[in-house]
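User: Structure please.
Assistant: Input sequence and predicted structure:
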Amino acid sequence: MIRLAVRVARDRAEIALSELLELQPSGVEEVELDDGSIEYAVYGAPGELPSLPNLRAAVGPALVEISTREVADDWAERWKRFHHPITVSDPDGRPRLRVRPPWSEPDPGVALDVVIDPGQAFGTGAHPSTRLSLSLLVELAHRGLARGALCDVGCGSGVLAIAGARLGWTPVVAVDHESESVSATTANAAVNGVHVDVSGLDLRRQAPPRAPTMVANLLRPLLLDLAAALAASPGEEPPPRTLIASGLLHHEVDEVAGAFGERAGLHERRRCSDGEWSALLLSRNVGQETLATDH
């Protein structure tokens, strides 16, 4: 079995992934490297893998390096060792939500159990940016704000959309550019017994559905696109009341917070960090639902 790895610049990772999935629609493995770049890997027999010229053409200026190596034929089972359950507690320290792969057992001490099959193209919520988003969703639910519609922009495997549905938001809609994400979110929602209205959407060309609560775990360029897409025009639905924006490195937070404030009237109420990653909780000044600032 051969592992073919493509290392790309982080700021072009979302675009590179989109192009790679055209060549390898069954999915790719994603690894964040210490130098800040992203590595995407595919597995297969030598004749089954995309050709190097096609890879170079697809990834274009984002390409940093391509490498190949042989791996044991049991890789399809070994990758499961990297996916572990995570537990999210409420602000009082009580375990509220547990996200786990299907091969892990539920924890009876945690109120809400979410099962996510990561396939080989997604995670189960362990990435810091996803954990931060889950923590902020739990915090909103703890404050009694888990009501009305929720939109998950860039849903991936559906972790945030499904967690939102389990926490009490309804209806829940989710959008993603990749058809694999639409399929994965639909399947994972069914396993968890919740309904999520999932559809394909290219944020660079289309505005997402409006909802009072929105969560967007995306990279900086797409978050800036989202801020522009949420700019209210006469006759359009207003921007969300509350937005969780994650997927940011520390030095990117001020720029993105400023863009949402200027373009969509969504102002920073809280920022939180995990390692080098940060997330923002933003809201509009709407009646009593304004959230207290807490840096």
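Residues 287-295 have pLDDT under 50 and may be disordered.
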